[in-house]
Amino acid sequence: MNPTLYKLIEIVFMTVFGAVLVGIAGLVIGGQLAIDSLGQAQYARMWARDYSTFVAALSGIELAMSAIRGKDDITNHLVSGSGAGLALSFLRQGFKLRPAHALSSVASFAVIQATIYKVKETIKSRNAQDALYTEARAMLSKLCLEDYEKNFKKGHLTDPTLPLLTDRELQEVNIPPGARLLILDHIKRYHKMENRE
After folding, report:
1. Membrane-spanning regions, if any (predicted)?
2. pTM score > 0.70 for this model?
3. pLDDT digit string (tens) for 84-102?
């Protein structure tokens, strides 16, 4: 299948799917927030319409930007947040929309989307970095030396460097003599057992 056509199908599917899910959630939330039974249906429909349109604009613009630009970065999220905020403003106020309201909506949703992107990237980065210390963390835990994990990270003593560690490297990251002896002994024993297998 043509990659461009595939990306277009993905954009349409994700946009429609997101809009339907959020529309259903809007019906439920809107129904819960309505006070009188006569206004409940109208209020729920308004929530469903507003937020399904918002999510459709948000995901559609974000996916289109990713497809056009070939990367997923903060710019895509700023543009999609801005476009979704503008769509929501127009939907709620129509052509009576005041420029100040439109700009505040655009800016607010752009900042929210950029913040969400940055938080996700920070979490991804931390998870990727923590994956480099799996064996070191397990070793320190087994030796009841968990307090020195930050020293390992500070010195970039990752899992691949464990067999190469000497007393000097451990001393450079401020690990006291007793803990250094335990760590070096554990590494020596662990690698002897590994080599036997």
Report:
1. 12-35
2. no
3. 999 888 888 877 878 888 8
